[in-house]
Amino acid sequence: MLDLAASRTPGQTDVMMFLSKSYKYVDVGVPAGLLVGGIISNDKQMRQNALYIASSTAISYGAMLLIKHLVKRPRPFVQNINIVPVYRASSTSFPSGHATSTFSTAMALSNAYPKWYVIAPSFLWAGSVAYSRMYLGVHYPTDVTAGAILGTGTALLLQPIRK
Asked: What is the total count of domains within the chain?
């Protein structure tokens, strides 16, 4: 984390901030777009996929909030003054909410549409968002790993509702 903070550049930081902020729009936009597409084309499966993805992301986000409340791990910049964050995130650190929701969205979308051209970009985006949280100095690697596991696990556990 110290090496990441020491090697930041303004251009990289802008990209990482963009990625970090993108999670809200993609997590909501993907199921919303599928729902609208399913309504317009009268495609029941697409509407069910939208519900599955939205449910997976919402449930994993709720579980993440509960775990954050129970664990209360301080942010890296609170525990180590040598880690200088790009901005001071509020709340607690474990697990990463960004990693939880993006991996849940990516896994659910990949389950719903199991094609390489859906899977690869989905997980590339989720991994990039998770990495951005460490780069920005607001999460430990274990925070994003736990978030990725929680989000992915939630999507896998909810897969039967797709049917």
From this structure: 1
Give the domain range for residue 110. Answer: 2-162
What is Dmax (Cα atoms) for the chain? 55
Query: 90 is written with which tokens?
Result: 């509020």
Place of tokens 């909810």: 158
The reported pLDDT for the residue numbered 83 is 75
Q: Which amino acid is at 1?
A: M
Statement: the pTM of the whole predicted model exceeds 0.70 = yes
How many CA atoms are closer than 13 Å to the CA of 89, on its beta-carbon side?
26
Average pLDDT of adjacent 10-residue blocks, the chain of 163 residues: 78 91 93 96 94 95 94 83 74 91 96 96 96 90 96 94 71
Q: Tell me which residue of 135, 134, 107, 99 sits closest to 123, measured CA to CA.
A: 107
For residue 121, give the nearest of 134, 105, 136 by alpha carbon.
105
* CATH of residue 83: 1.10.606.20
**In whole angstroms, how far apart are CA 129 and each of 22, 137, 159, 161?**
8, 13, 23, 27
